[in-house]
Amino acid sequence: MKIGQTGSVAGNLSAKSLIVAGRFAGDADCDTIELIAGGQVDGKLISKSLIIDASSSFQGESVRKKDGSVTGKVVNLAADAMKEATDPTQP
Questions:
Q1: Pairwise CA distance, residues 90 & 71, whole Å
Q2: What Å distances lie between residue 56 and 22, 72, 82, 91, CA to CA?
Q3: Which end of the chain is more exposed for a tag (fewer CB within 10 A), N or C?
Q4: Are 65 and 71 in contact (CB under 8 A)?
Q5: How far apart are CA 57 and CA 38, in angstroms?
Q6: What is the pLDDT at residue 75?
Q7: E strands in 1-39
Q8: pLDDT tens for residues 64-90?
Q9: What are residue 22's phi and psi, to 5 degrees?
Q10: Count of C-beta atoms within a 10 Å radius of residue 16
């Protein structure tokens, strides 16, 4: 599933993959989730693979699943904090 730049989805979804360029609010259970430039997510993401572009926004929880099942590890993230943590120009 792809949410385009002008798209907005609120609710829960399950799909093989999710690409967010617009806005998504809710819970998503997918093998692969990718937030691309300008994408905004507020919710719980359950995936095997999560890719977050530095110019996207993510507020919520990320749960990594292994072999189709949730591992139970929850990570609270904010995209701005991740951006600062990965910026090599920051001391």
A1: 33
A2: 10, 25, 11, 22
A3: C
A4: yes
A5: 7
A6: 43
A7: 2-3, 8-10, 13-20, 23-35
A8: 988 655 544 444 444 444 444 444 454
A9: -105, -130
A10: 8
Torsion of CA 48, 53, 54, 57, to 10 degrees: -80
Six token digits for residue 68: 């189709």
- Count CB atoms within 10 A of the CB of residue 53: 17
Q: What pLDDT does residue 72 have?
A: 44
pLDDT at residue 69, rounded to an integer:
56
Q: Cβ(48)–Cβ(65) under 8 Å? A: yes
